[in-house]
Write a structure and sequence with these properties.
By secondary structure, this protein is of the alpha/beta class. It has 9 helices and 5 strands; from the N terminus they run ααααβαβαβαβαβα. It has 2 domains: 76 residues, Methionine synthase domain (Methyltransferase, Methionine Synthase (B12-binding Domains), Chain A, domain 1, Orthogonal Bundle), CATH 1.10.1240.10; 115 residues, Rossmann fold (3-Layer(aba) Sandwich), CATH 3.40.50.280. Helices cover 51% and strands 14% of the residues. The longest helix is centred in the first third of the chain and has 22 residues. It is globular, with a radius of gyration of 17 Å. Bound molecules: cobalamin (B12). The site of cobalamin has 39 residues, from helix 3, helix 4, helix 5, strand 3 and strand 4.
Length: 212
């Protein structure tokens, strides 16, 4: 699927109504939701990040683009989350303490749900107690998301907190996380993107990584 230039620009410029219109039309035309997301929408939001880095745009513009993106993702959500079978396992996911980014986390939630997991979405700015409560409620895997170099340091304290609880598995991810970093802090798994998150969660549960 080629990049959808209209949609790309609508996200970059934060044109929410236009995003809704274009995504809805694409869905009505039977376009593939995951491809639309991966080929056009995520790269568009990354471009906004690059513009922020180079001082071309500021936080308010990033926020408007994020809202426009989320409006498009909301339309795609039912197509990404199919579900309908017995849950494979219970997973809880949250952005770590101090981190308010949630678009990537929300995509991971959708992919996990779509792959048969029961998912407890803990939201953003999650403290250790929030993860602890999720484990008390039956979570077998905790997924931690971080987008800032200043918040990724919040992952290790969570991992250390559950170090003596062998039954709890921890998978980490987010733009500032690498496989090496995940190993360094003692995580059980690392996922590059939303589909890779499913592989990582399945693997850390000892399940075949590919079959859903
Ligand atoms: C939108 C955005 C915002 C929005 C967030 C809105 C929201 N509801 O999420 C707002 C405006 C609030 C924001 C604020 C800030 N932001 Co900001 N933001 C972004 C931006 C442009 C896009 C993020 C995004 O949604 N990407 C798209 C999603 C789909 O990708 P993703 O999050 O990486 O997720 C994928 C993978 O990483 C992975 N994944 C994610 N989580 C997990 C978890 C697990 C377990 C797994 C396996 C995988 C996984 O799967 C996802 C799907 O494929 C990025 C730029 C960028 N390049 O990422 C900057 C960026 C992350 N922000 C940045 C900064 C600096 C900030 C602020 C500090 C700015 C400020 N001065 O106030 C604040 C911090 C607020 C806070 N305390 O969190 C920097 C971070 C730099 C750094 N290395 O630390 C970036 C990189 C911009 C830049 N180039 O400088 N931001």
């Amino acid at each position: 699927m080629p990049i959808n230039d209209g949609l790309y620009d609508a996200i970059v410029f934060g044109e929410r109504d236009q995003v809704v219109e274009i995504v809805q039309k694409a869905v009505d035309d039977g376009e593939d939701a995951a491809e639309l997301l991966n080929v056009t929408m995520i790269p568009a939001l990354r471009e906004v990040g690059d513009q922020f880095s180079s001082g071309e745009v500021f936080v308010p513009e990033m926020l408007v683009s994020a809202h426009a993106m989320q409006a498009g993702v909301d339309i795609l959500a039912p197509l990404l989350v199919k579900g309908g079978h017995e849950p494979i396992a219970r997973v809880a996911i949250g952005s770590v303490k101090g981190d308010l980014h949630d678009i990537g986390k929300n995509l991971v939630v959708m992919m996990l749900k779509g792959s048969g997991f029961e998912v407890d979405d803990l939201g953003v700015d999650c403290r250790i107690e929030t993860f602890e409560e999720a484990v008390d409620n039956g979570a077998q895997v905790l997924c931690l998301s971080a987008l800032l170099s200043t918040t990724r340091g919040e992952m290790k304290p969570v991992i250390d907190h559950f170090a003596n609880r062998d039954e709890v598995r921890i998978v980490v991810g987010g733009a500032v996380i690498t496989e090496d970093y995940a190993k360094q802090i003692g995580a059980d798994g690392f996922g590059e993107d939303a589909s890779d998150a499913v592989r990582a969660v399945r693997e850390c549960l000892g399940l075949d990584a590919t079959s859903a």
